[in-house]
């Protein structure tokens, strides 16, 4: 169906559609060379690798754009409800292969480039991944928008185009050093900037009452503003002709305004003020689990949320749309509390700008938002001091006060003047801060946790009063991951094996992996599976060699712990196991040849201001140097810690892994999503009963999962009894020795002071009960060693892990959100 022609158009191409280039090798080559010549302004022979990469990206784009525009047109002609996913982070990973796969052009592109004498591998390596997220939360957003496009569900992903994403990690003498992530340095071929469509976003100032034809109303008189410039990215569905939009906002100075506010006749000062505005989207905050209450962060949050809501109302919806019907057209999904300031913003738009009655506006708002919580850690729950919020967004603070007032009135009506309850439920905390999770819960139509256990704890422990007050509001949606990126692209060998065994179609219907179960007992299949793992290890070895000069032994078990560095995730527990395994061999307690060779792989970034996490990174590197240099364990134990773990590296490491470490203290990891990626790639998990591990274990079966450690109720019971970590170090000789080795300077050239703070923290505080779970963890690792020696049995378990993990597709998560929260439908 052609795009409607503008009035006066007569040329057939103007009436359109212009159409994509022909999906043939010849068509691809022609378009590729055209882009190289006319967009890059170079000939093939004079081109740089970056030119050739750009031309390739532009060519892939050219195939997708026609479908994108057509989809936008069809959506606008429909009256479908769209999912507006509001997320401060999107950890996208590289786009090239994903977009080739989605458009079904992988083979054509490979052949076309080969015929041009261009090395596609070299071009792949040119792409800098947009690291616009910290970890699980940002990657989840990226998986979700992939699934929505694949399921043809209308969706706009809204977020921030940070100029600097998550820092690039390097090590100096084993210590983390952060480098700026200047991912835009060579440009970004996938984005479509629209500076002409910028929106004005205001801040500061005051509020005033005014007379509006006999009605007294409030309005905001802001003091300063910036421009929000949209950058569109295509989000193609997997081979379904659908392309959704990711719209990221970039801040820019609002010249007219800045000249008056920031200078008095001083041109240079005025231009300098521009950097003030541009600061808002300058850099991603690298904290993944603390809420610091920094003003710039609140500016970022309001900036992107205000621009996004306005965009949906003014640009996406038809002109003069009746906003009382907004819930029929939009659901704003809040990815954690970061976008919650959108709640008072929508109220402000409806009440102050559209002159809707408060109650009607509140009814609309409550139906338009839903909130996903990603944590249980108290220090990660966002609160904004009222003085800060009032200074930056005075009208929003007033609106929050009124929401709270009416909410607490309703609580009093239900429960009487129970002041303790009122204090516990007030959106404004006793020390004068806005509790964003409370605001989100009061405003949202639904509140969900991200795995069964997490949702249960959220209801029962974090927000029980709200659960009682709002029956039916709390629900669970267990996280998922996109099988397109994390199986098909990351592990083409496994994908081929699966397709050979069960046919195709599984990539969009992942429960079909169940059909692999019988192959677990097929010796030929298991052998092929083993060869796949070996090939992936060789591929990883080549990557690590080229990237970091690291080497991996061929015949080792690959034991992997990759995730953000945080005490609750317990990288220290993993280290204690390594030190124990090392100590057992060098002390002669075990014969080196009696245990399978293991390579331990870490990947982890620490928040730059998180001292203990950085010290643990230093210790991992220190233990690694000692172990790797000790001839007594040569060929048996090896520790690798490639720096700068990111999506690109994850795609290499996960398919090669044999063992997946998911060892958080029970009750602390909301879900985990790495755990799902490993299981889907045939690694066995050693894990606690935490987050989605619980569901993984239930699905793959106890025989195919190494469970250890206290359960969440056991953790609670131990806290209640009183936890004295030093007692655990006394009871287990191996633990005592490992701690002594670390504390005595065995890994710091004899200087005990370097790692003493880690040991003393474990012995005296140990908030995450590392010592309490040590004995059980070592026992589980001994079971792992035993199991690994029986190759056939191990591979059988690995195949069963793949076969039984189809539940963890983000397509299933999206179906759950649709059924339980959004009630949207695909655009047919
Ligand atoms: C993670 N959270 C959870 N937060 O830790 C993980 N936080 O269990 C879960 O699987 C994942 O979310 C997806 O649900 C995060 O990744 C952050 O990155 C973050 C960022 C900024 C502020 C707070």
UniProtKB/TrEMBL annotation:
PROSITE patterns: PHOSPHORYLASE (PS00102). GO terms for molecular function: glycogen phosphorylase activity; pyridoxal phosphate binding. One of its GO terms (cellular component) is cytoplasm. GO terms for biological process: glycogen catabolic process. Pfam families: Phosphorylase. The modification N6-(pyridoxal phosphate)lysine is found at residue 677. InterPro entries: Glycg_phsphrylas, Glyco_trans_35, Pyridoxal_P_attach_site. Its EC number is 2.4.1.1. It is an enzyme of class 2 (transferase). Its cofactor is pyridoxal 5'-phosphate. Keywords: Carbohydrate metabolism, Glycosyltransferase, Pyridoxal phosphate, Transferase. It comes from the Bacteria. It catalyses: [(1->4)-alpha-D-glucosyl](n) + phosphate = [(1->4)-alpha-D-glucosyl](n-1) + alpha-D-glucose 1-phosphate. Allosteric enzyme that catalyzes the rate-limiting step in glycogen catabolism, the phosphorolytic cleavage of glycogen to produce glucose-1-phosphate, and plays a central role in maintaining cellular and organismal glucose homeostasis. Phosphorylase is an important allosteric enzyme in carbohydrate metabolism. Enzymes from different sources differ in their regulatory mechanisms and in their natural substrates. However, all known phosphorylases share catalytic and structural properties. Belongs to the glycogen phosphorylase family. This is Alpha-1,4 glucan phosphorylase. It comes from Microbacterium terrae.
